[in-house]
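Hi there,

I know you've been waiting on this one. I reran it after we fixed the sequence typo, so this is the corrected version. Both the input and the resulting structure follow.
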Amino acid sequence: MNSMSFLVTTVFDLYIMVVLLRIWLQATRADFYNPFSQFVVKATQPVVAPLRRVIPSVGNIDMATLLFAYVLCVLKFFTVVFIKSGALSLDPYLLFIGLLSLVKAAGGLLFWVLLIRAILSWVSQGRSPIEYVFHQLTEPMLAPIRRIIPAMGGFDLSVLVLFIGLQFANFLMGDLIGPIWFGL
């Protein structure tokens, strides 16, 4: 059953990241005509479009898409518990675990976007549409760091500083919540 749990968790995690990317793209007002952005919109539109008719946005935050991401996180744990135990558990504790999982998935998505952006900056030198969108997504977080810590010898250390901040936040959440945080 570990192989099935791995497969289900991986599929859920990948789709949750796509849904979170949609929220992030909307919040930063990234270029929606970019091919990468169009993929994200097309992958989430069948579920998000009906939800958006019922659930309004709050400022730049698309609450319908956020609710969809949360429901996916909760469904992931209901499914994994069902696969491991063979019984359907309607434990309200899984609602809290779903919320924690959503927060951790957002941090994980930020980590991967930063890592891919850093690698693409070495390889594509600004010609990739994915790099352009990742630049739009991460620049609001990196620009304030660059004002404090300027480039050193042509190296931009802002990504490294943000990585260290993400690791600190991850360990802090583990200290506050306990070992369950690292198991998510």
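Quick highlight: The longest helix spans residues 93-123.

Best,
R. S.
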